[in-house]
Fold:
Amino acid sequence: TVAQINGDKFLKRLSTATLETLAIIAYKQPITKGEIESIRGVNCDYTVQKLLEKELIVITGRNEKLPGQPLVYA
Structure:
């Protein structure tokens, strides 16, 4: 019943890379994508996008102190 209400976004399991990214965000929040990439050592655009689609993370604003004002995730 819950899967029918929420749709298909919760039916698939999370990959190892997605779980690593989610753990980093949960531990170090608020955090920017650049900080996540420096911790993991690889590009994390796709994993952050999937976590946002599944509503496991949210954008909490922008970091005004860094150049380019990157998005901040929590």
